[in-house]
Design a protein that fits this description.
Shape: elongated
Distance between the termini: 48 Å
Number of strands: 25
Radius of gyration: 31 Å
Strand content: over 45%
Number of helices: 7
Structural class: mainly beta
Largest sheet: 25 strands, mixed
Length: about 525
């Protein structure tokens, strides 16, 4: 949360500084296009002054380098640039802009800050590439200490030399890559405005930011930032997305196709507020709430319809707390909570999750009218887990339990093969679902260890232990027998199943979840 917030704030500030610095660099680099502004009572080289001030700003605050194709200057205060680019220190081209217009709100004077009424950027591409450290190449390269000599010169403090009133973006494309080697995810036709007003105290500026395409995709932020100290207060953040056809059809072709194929839909709204310093974000505080309704996503043969979702999170003293996480889904409910300490070594995280009344049949994406579903039943259970996020799998520990009633559990790996081996006729699946199952398990770096489990179907009963790996491998030991025989021994098979464990044949289930291999354990052992 905090790393993302820091990157977003740097992107906004970096974009503003980039727009200003490009203009300044060009004014200085091409003095024949600037000259003296022929206005009454103007007796100094205004263009040179503006350019030198902006060069001071870029030297104090930014590392990326700028280039341009051409420049047009119209007195008294309009600069038009084309073919503008911003290149990170490692050579990554992070911004390309076809047209940029900088309009001064008043005639520049050496005894007052440069006042810019508007920066308009059109037809450009912003490339965001992960740097492997939680930031973005180029955008995370603001000079933290300020200036090549350490402290920022008073003449180049943003509050002293700059008063910005408005930034406009039009027809901007945003590309994101997790790393330089991955394929980009691209969002076109982005437009936004940011209004900036001087605050009541020195250094503070009010910011109102709006972006997106209503009503399907919108972002609005209201707050203030101190350009001297980089203290930031976000009074209101609201982002919303309605993943319906009207929104999906406007997204890039590959992304739109992916969302449609996975049947992604529903509405999400994110609201929040924060108070922090961009240079010391972990000392700040923030609250974020996520709410959703009629959400839906699918993958392969399965789907997750979510009737409603609510997530409340807070960040303070370096700890992110999520409580509650509530979702009504699959005709049941999921409740969870968790914490992450981002100031401690390894980023320790822990959480718990409870689910109740989950209708597994509703998780099937497509149902055949000619045969019973391979998965059905009412699922209940809970999981507790902890880990270090910097080595999440290697440090994972946890435990849980789950139970299914009124079910049809053909999907369990090896169950069909085991039933066929025991009964020869296979897994009989007639009438109403009547399978049931329970399991106790622990979590570790390699996957899940089943310490106790029981499955009862219309044809077999089984108790088993073993492992199911994150790599989809399975290694189970199962005591199982035909239901008909067990009923003759016990009558109705229930909690008494454990009393006849020794009378059941021992089996092994190995291989993978997708290709299980069932065998009889020789002499009751592997």
């Amino acid at each position: 949360m905090i790393r993302v917030g820091r990157v977003l704030r740097r992107v906004v500030l970096g974009a503003v500084l980039a727009a200003l610095v490009v203009g300044g660099v060009l004014l200085v680099a091409r003095p024949r296009l600037v000259g003296r502004i022929p206005l009454p009572r103007l007796t100094f080289d205004a263009g040179g002054y503006v350019g030198s001030q902006l060069i001071g700003i870029v030297n104090s605050h930014l590392k990326p380098e700028f280039a341009f194709g051409s420049i047009e200057y119209d007195a008294p205060g309009t600069v038009r640039l084309s073919g503008v680019s911003l290149t990170a220190p490692d050579g990554t081209r992070i911004v390309d802009v076809e047209r940029m217009t900088v309009t001064l709100a008043e005639t520049p004077r050496p005894d007052r800050p440069i006042k810019i009424a508007r920066i308009a950027i059109a037809d450009g591409v912003v490339r965001m590439v992960g740097d492997g450290r939680g930031g973005l190449v180029g955008f995370s390269d603001m000079r933290e200490s300020g200036g090549r000599g350490g402290e920022i010169d008073e003449a180049f403090r943003l509050s002293s030399v700059l008063v910005l009133e408005r930034v406009e973006l039009d027809e901007i494309s945003i590309e994101y890559r997790a790393s330089a080697e991955t394929e980009p995810l691209r969002l076109d036709h982005v437009a936004s405005t940011m209004d900036v007003r001087s605050g009541r105290t020195p250094g503070w500026h009010e910011i109102a930011f709006a972006s997106g395409r209503g009503p399907g995709l919108e972002l609005n932020v209201d707050g203030r930032v101190n350009l001297d100290t980089f203290d930031t207060e976000i009074d209101s953040l609201r982002a919303s997305i309605d993943a319906g056809p009207d929104t999906t059809d406007t997204l890039p072709g590959p992304l739109a196709s992916l969302l449609k194929s996975q049947e992604v839909g529903g509405r999400l709204v994110v609201t929040g507020r924060a108070a922090l310093n961009v240079r010391r974000p972990l000392d700040g505080t923030a609250t974020v709430t996520v709410s959703g309704e009629d959400l839906h996503a699918a993958y392969g043969d399965y789907q997750i319809p979510v009737a409603s979702l609510r997530i409340a999170s807070a960040f303070a003293e370096g700890v992110l707390t999520v409580e509650p996480f509530e979702a009504d889904l699959l005709h049941g409910s999921l409740r969870a909570r968790g914490t992450i300490d981002v100031t401690a070594a390894g980023w320790p995280a822990k959480g718990s999750c409870a689910f109740e009344g989950i209708d597994l049949r509703e998780a099937l994406r497509r149902l055949s009218a000619d045969e019973p579903p391979k998965l059905a039943g009412i699922l209940d259970g809970h999981v507790d887990a902890s880990t270090l996020l910097e080595s999440a799998r290697a440090s994972l520990t946890g435990s849980g339990e789950a139970s299914v009633k009124e079910g049809r559990l053909v999907i369990l790996p090896g169950l069909t093969q085991l039933s066929r081996l025991i009964n020869r006729t296979g897994l009989v699946d007639e009438g109403e679902p009547d399978h049931r199952g329970t399991a106790l398990f622990t979590l570790g770096p390699t996957g899940m260890t089943i310490t106790e489990s029981e499955v009862v179907t219309s044809t077999i009963a089984a108790r088993g232990t073993g492992t199911v790996g994150f790599d989809r491998s399975i290694d189970l030991r199962v005591n199982a027998g035909p239901m008909e025989k067990l009923q003759s021994l016990l009558g109705k098979v229930g909690d008494l199943l454990g009393q006849v464990t020794d009378r059941l044949v021992k089996y092994t289930i190995k291989g993978t979840i997708d290709d299980p291999v069932v065998g009889v354990a020789p002499l009751g052992f592997d």
